[in-house]
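seq as requested:
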Amino acid sequence: MDAVGGDALRGAAALVRRPRQIRSSAAPALATELGGSGITRRRDAAVYAELADLVARGGIRPVIHATFPFEEAAAAVAQVATGHATGKTVVTAEGGVGA
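struct tokens:
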């Protein structure tokens, strides 16, 4: 499963025993060229609800690298830009945005 594309996908494809198992949301055409296929990203409430349910049930466990309060969102973006995160960077909105 690829979400980056380009050279990262090419490099990963070289490690796959069965190229037909390659899937990419970032570079569907390249995935097809390498023997796999592309997938279409869906960003809607149903998808996010399903993901939240999977996390709540322990079906998937997101890896959190760092958490920042909304007021430090610029620092969170700077952290991500370093490229050294070992997981997701989360920005929290205590009490909701605008509270």
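The two ends are 38 Å apart (CA to CA).
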